Amino acid sequence: MPKMIFVIGANATGKTHFIRQCFSGNGMTCFNIKDYQQRVYQEEKAGSLIPPGAQFRYLMRANQLLLEDILKALAQGRDVAAEHTLYMAKRRIAYIDALRKAVTDLTISVYVMCPSDAQWEANASRRGEADQLQRYRKEAELIEFPNVSEGIDAIYEVVDGDVRLRMDPPRPEIYEAAKQALAEEAARLQREDEARERRKQLIGSMRERPFWHYCEVCGKSQFMTAQEAYDAGWDYPPHMGDFGLLGPRTCGGCRLTDTLYWKILTSGTLPIVREKDLTPEELVTWRRIRGEPESLLTEEA
Length: 301
Ligand SMILES: [Zn+2]
Hints:
Blueprint: E1 3-8, H1 15-22, E2 29-32, H2 33-43, H3 54-75, E3 80-84, H4 89-102, E4 107-113, H5 117-126, H6 133-140, E5 154-159, E6 162-165, H7 173-205, E7 211-214, E8 221-224, H8 226-231, H9 260-265, H10 280-290
Parallel strand pairs: 1-3, 1-4, 2-3, 4-5
Antiparallel strand pairs: 5-6, 7-8
This protein binds zinc ion.
């Protein structure tokens, strides 16, 4: 019977050590979710600045890549141990459903690392992360303890190397709740994808379609294409800067140094726009920029 083992737990709870000790020597194929997360971050060239909403997608993508490798290994008849986060029942259920669909007779066990305070502290110190322990403990509070109703055959607590079977009473209601949460999540991601695609198309169309150009300095406005504006000397997206981001919005006769962009850039403090510091005219300019490109499609009243 093929075997699938998950080892879950917060940071520095000894997952890697436990897997090395109990499973990797026994001919099992071992995976670590961290390797997959790193791979995704590298592929996305994500540094310390991750775009809002992207982190969740990166983590989901890493989960998916790991799942694919687990399925491949199981298909080759190998037993698998995976170090994973899978704090939430719904994440485990998504995995387990996919595994059960692909592999009949699969035995799934989950080991939850629950070190004593002293052990956890020692682990963190050894890694030079003693100052992070408070954060790790908070993270551990997010773990929903696994339940057989998720489709797991055996659940164990690992306390300082001592492995104890812990099978809480079944809670069948969590399965349906998880499926519903996952469906809502998938629908939300799809809506976001669609909105992003619509915006991409709109931005792309701005290269061809005529739209309103407003000079923030002299107040001149003109309905024309980006090329016409560029030829007439305007500083305007898409030729200059990006729609929705602060930059100069001027006709060919006005100067960069009279723009809101210049004022913010040379303010001597962080280049952040604070609406309460703006004049009424600057506020109009700022809100128009924030609303681009939609704010340029119809003439302002
Ligand atoms: Zn002007």
